[in-house]
Amino acid sequence: MENNKAQQELLDSMRKIDKIIIYCIFGSIPLCLVLIVSYNAVFGLSVRESIIQRDSLETVNGVVDTVYNDKPNHNMRTAILKDRTIYRIEPTWESKIEAGNSLHKIKGSFLLEVYKKSGERLMLDYKTTIAPE
């Protein structure tokens, strides 16, 4: 009888330990997510800074083969270059980029050069697409 009682106490204590372990595991996941989001909100880049960084790091060089509206991507105007590079066209530039144009942008620059078939050259500035602070 004493043996059964001791075994029951051991099982009860193991159940408590199991519960504590499970609570720690499942409690730590939301805590980590909250800490990561809080850290990024305080010390991370703002949306504007992220857009500026993304735009400056982009490189484009090629001839536009096809221009279409990408329905799965919110109907965004998209160009496919001859080398199969996909370039998403800024909404304010949709009428300025068409099939047959050459696009050129170097890393670190905010200027996209568009060379038309007619020989005309357009300079499109990414800074004009970024909302002011």
Model description:
By secondary structure, the protein is α+β, with helices and mostly antiparallel strands. 40% of the residues lie in helices and 26% in strands. It is built from two helices and six strands; from the N terminus they run ααββββββ. It has helices at 2-43, 47-57, and strands at residues 60-70, 76-81, 86-88, 102-105, 111-115, 121-125. Strands 3-2-1-4-5-6 form a six-stranded antiparallel β-sheet, with no helix packed on it. The longest helix is centred in the N-terminal third of the chain and has 42 residues, at 2-43. It starts with a helix and ends in an 8-residue tail after the last strand.
Label this structure with key terms.
about 130 residues; alpha+beta; 2 helices; about 40% helix; about 25% strand
How does the SSE layout of this entry go?
Blueprint: H1 2-43, H2 47-57, E1 60-70, E2 76-81, E3 86-88, E4 102-105, E5 111-115, E6 121-125
Antiparallel strand pairs: 1-2, 1-4, 2-3, 4-5, 5-6
Q: How much of the polypeptide forms β-strand, as a percent range? A: 25-35%
What percent of residues adopt helix (DSSP H or I)? 25-40%
Largest β-sheet summary:
6 strands, antiparallel
Return the average pLDDT rounded to an integer: 89
- Based on secondary structure, the structural category is alpha+beta
Structure summary, number of beta strands: 6
Number of continuous helical runs: 2
